[in-house]
TrEMBL record:
Fatty acid hydroxylase domain mapped to chain residues: 146-282
GO MF: iron ion binding; oxidoreductase activity
GO biological process assignments: lipid biosynthetic process
Protein name according to UniProt: Fatty acid hydroxylase domain-containing protein
Compartments (UniProt record): Membrane
Species name: Neurospora tetraspora
Pfam families: FA_hydroxylase (PF04116)
Residue ranges of the TM segments: none
Keywords on record: Membrane, Transmembrane, Transmembrane helix
Amino acid sequence: MATAVLNATVAGLSSTDTYFTVLEEVSKYNVQLNYAEKLWAAWYLWMQNDTLATGLMSFFMHEIIYFGRSIPWMIIDALPMFNKYKLQKEKRPTWKEQFECAGLVLLSHLTVELPQIWLFHPIATYFGLDYGVPFPPLWKMAFQICIFFIMEDAWHYWNHRALHYGPLYKSIHKIHHTYSAPFGLAAEYASPIEVMLLGIGTVGSPILWVCFTKDLHLATMYVWIVLRLFQAIDAHSGYDFPFSLCHILPFWAGAEHHDVHHERFIGNYASSFRWWDYCLDTEAGEEAAKARREKKLAAMRAKKAQ
């Protein structure tokens, strides 16, 4: 770990100590740490294998957040009182569809994402990732996470748009469009190639950042992953509430943005923000189509007037 005090703590531990014994020792000699930092330090000291400690923590965090965040949307789908907020009211996933989707997503997590999660620690630490204590200040974490959202969104836009090219769509991306009315669990329902390709934007952005800056903590990475999972699942929820983030931040994509993409199978390629689709004229929906028609008609009139 990062501090000399923790090294002194290690000397007093044995391989038979439980996690809570280690936590007690860490708390006793490191009063300057907050409780989350003590839990974190005790975990790495108790595991005595940093790659294994990060791998287990990363995998279980991913599963708990992904399925835990999806459950509220499953409940909302079962309650008629929320139907007025559903974007495609006539299309509601059945329990069978949701459980089949959950099973296939879990299989993908175990076979495709788990190896990537396991390789993350040695690769990221090679480039300078810090995983010691104390954690970085909140302002630094927030700044870096904003950068990661921007980087991932750009990667997602261009690769997602490429996946809608004929052969790539048929052989790779079509699986994700199984559901024309998406729901939370379907956020990572995709082919292994797509999972790896788009996942590069999520994991690769922080790695690229730490390559150049040598300034990134694993705790920041975890907060980023949690927020990215929330964004992906909520974008696939199929619901648009008055308090949804897209009504607070006009440039935020949200469920309405992505739902139209699933409904029309084209346009709205970005993940988090609207600016790529706006600037490159790939917005989907009636308003965007109307604007394009008017622009085309205006150009035709101007040409005739010459």
